[in-house]
Amino acid sequence: MKINSIINFSKIYNSNIQTLQTKSKKEQDNNNNNKIGLDSLKGNLFSSIKLSFKSKPKVPVYVIDKDGSCKKFASQKEAAAHLDSYSSDVSQAARKGYTIKGKSIVKASEIEQIDKDGNIVVDKDKIKEIIKNSDKRLYAIKYNGEYKECSSQKEAREFIGCDKSNLRALIYGTINTLNGYTVIKASEAETLDDKGETVIDVEKIEKIARNIDKRIYIISKEGVYRQCSNQSEAAQIIGTDPSNVSAVLNNRSRTIKGFFVIKASDIETKDKEGRIVTDEKKLSEIMKNLDKNIYVFNQYGEYKKFASRKEAAQFIGCNICSIGQVLNGSAKTINGYSIVRASEVEERNQAGTIKVDEEKIKELSKKINRGVYVISQDGTYKKYSTPKETSRALNISAKSIINVLAHKAKTTGGFRMVRAADIETLDNNGNVAVDEEKLREILSKR
């Protein structure tokens, strides 16, 4: 019995030992596998790190000068060495369109193209566009046409006397003027002449100057004028609202409290030396329009002066609009009267006395009287109201009658003809009569 127990114990012990040895071997194999996996992971990680630190492929770039000349470099590093700069700066300039020492940097792939023969060539139009966009020069323009070229925004700010935000607002049109100046890019102020050379577009600069000029002239009836910096100042001097000043400037109204206002650019001109002066001719025209006095006259040269259109309308028996139509030329007469501005028939002598040009009024009155006198061979005559009525009565073409009246022909249909305005006059009683002497004189000349 003891012997059997010993044998069983020995079997169990050996079995346990074998189990433990098997487990130990498996654990050792697992550890070896884990070690191999870790080594493999480490190898892959170091490989990827090595790849990330490998040198990137070289990017060829062009360095472009302001005149359009360009030079190609095999890499940004070479371009940086040429410009005595850093590769990072060259890379940033190529990405964002900056310039380095006045030169533009652009990747070769952006401006190169293949021509018909398969050769790689540079796109000149793209180069022009790059130069245009990279030009940092600005022109500061004053309301009087004076301008200054500034090499940078900093120089423009110092010249005008403003900060960065205000200058940007000028460049992008958020505000029109600052301290009497506006700013435009050099590419907008320059053009090419016949030889292909870059020159300043003077006409464009003058046009911009006129648009930013806010100055206004106030002109009185006497011809005295005063310059104001803007509409608000003009309104303050006249004693009115700025909207009323704007109404006159935009032709919605004629005057304000007897004053006329006009933009400085509309009344100023340049003299021989290029100085800005007041255009006296334009001022004279304005004065004529300011004068409300008018003359009303009939076909016989009789006239009367009125201080306003309202008074003239009451005398003629019409509305005020009809007076304006005659003065503006859209109508010739109203109820047998014609009208003219006082400034057109009045003359002022050195002593300041006004004299009426009666001869001019008589000449104007002849245009009212359209009557025609038809004179037969025996010297008798008859009056017709118009050439058209004469044509119907005598069965003669109106054109032939007009030719005789205009002295292009002596007679038509055996008749001689004269205008009523040339031979009619008023007698002492104010009645219309034929001036026989004038009639004989006219006929003798023909």
List the helices and strands and how they pair.
Layout: H1 2-52, E1 61-64, E2 70-73, H2 76-83, H3 87-96, E3 99-100, E4 103-107, H4 108-111, E5 112-114, E6 120-122, H5 124-134, E7 138-142, E8 147-150, H6 153-160, H7 164-171, E9 181-185, H8 186-189, E10 190-192, E11 198-200, H9 202-212, E12 216-219, E13 225-228, H10 231-238, H11 242-249, E14 260-263, H12 264-267, E15 268-270, E16 276-278, H13 280-290, E17 294-297, E18 303-306, H14 309-316, H15 320-327, E19 338-341, H16 342-345, E20 346-348, E21 354-356, H17 358-365, E22 372-375, E23 381-384, H18 387-394, H19 398-405, E24 416-419, H20 420-423, E25 424-426, E26 432-434, H21 436-445
Antiparallel strand pairs: 1-2, 1-4, 3-4, 5-6, 7-8, 7-9, 10-11, 12-13, 12-14, 15-16, 17-18, 17-19, 20-21, 22-23, 22-24, 25-26
Helix pairs in contact: 2-3, 10-11, 14-15
